[in-house]
Amino acid sequence: MSKVSLVRVENYNNIEEKITEAIDLLGGINNFVKKDAKVFIKLNLIGPFGKDTGITTRPDVLESVIKLVKTQTDDITIGDNPAAKDVSFVLKKNGCFDLIEKYNLKLIDGKDEVIINNPHPHIYSNFEVSRDYIECDTLINLPKIKCHTLTYMTCAEKNFFGLIYGLKKASWHSKATNPLEFGEALNDLYGAFLHAMKDKIILNIADGVIGLDGDGPSTGGTPKAAKAIIASTDAVSVDTIACKLVKLDLNRIFVTNIAKERGYGEGDNIELLGNSLDDFDDVKFDGPRDTLSSIGLRIIRHKFIRNFILEHPKIDHNKCIKCGECAKICPAKTMKIEKGKFPHLRSTDCIRCWCCAEVCPQNAISKTKRPLIGKIFL
Ligand code: SF4
Ligand code: SF4
Hints:
- The chain is an alpha/beta fold and about 375 residues long.
- The chain has two domains: about 1-280, 3-Layer(aba) Sandwich (Rossmann fold), CATH 3.40.50.11440; about 300-375, Alpha-Beta Plaits, CATH 3.30.70.
- The chain contains 14 helices and 17 strands.
- It starts with a strand and ends with a helix.
């Protein structure tokens, strides 16, 4: 049985007190950070977005965690692997950068890599990940609670996709081109990570005080209050509670469900500490548009079928600033841009990974309407 603490938080004014409460419910910070331990704090820095967007780890959340960790050790490193822009640029945009000097932290850019191995993979066994992220005594994971166009929801487990450096993340989308295969690959990575960290401590602290509803995990989503901090050593349990809390469909969080099937976390066998889910009757997310049931996910395994029944990206020329980030990340190389022109794509080659929408700073990429035949079948 895994222990999960759930604390209701109305706003960020007293976030330090509330995060401390969530950790104290699990036995206090010294349960997770030993004296003079080496700590890595893994942020959620998908791109250069402000602290109020619900997209990235906020500075007040990070500072609250740093203060707690500082009671045990000064050896603290922070980082993440944004797909677009470098980590310093992203930290400056979301307001976390000043904390580095204030608390004498180390910042890692993630370029130094090491191979980790999943001893029981379903598809992929080896993953190149950023070395410093796993060569620590304790890793503290700080995800946001967000809806996700491709995976329905993203929170603690999927935040570990950020162990993979920068644009290399996009290449995993071209290896695992349909959502179920991508879910298996993410779990192969998570299994490899758990294996690499087997003698170490992982603590997840998810922030949903303001989360992200709709077509997340980036500018396509809408900031929305889930009014919660959720903490546990088990990422799969955190994600299960987050899904219940925002009243989304547990059957559709396929990444989490694959993890449960593989025994990577408890998921259902949870001792909930602090608030109960009944204390969140006023919290409800709508989820991404046009999501897929488990039958739908099976139907779209083949690219040929996907082209007939699924929506594809469309670009709003009134919002686009022709920055080219969408073309740079596109793993299928189907989104292209010429100097001074708007990007364009060949939709039949699109693998619907939505990386382009994820990195677009302008929320200029949305979904076309689902074709009628797709609406009927899915
Ligand atoms: S156009 Fe967008 S959704 Fe399609 S493959 Fe490229 S990045 Fe992925
Ligand atoms: S669609 Fe977005 S990412 Fe692509 S060029 Fe326009 S603004 Fe940049």
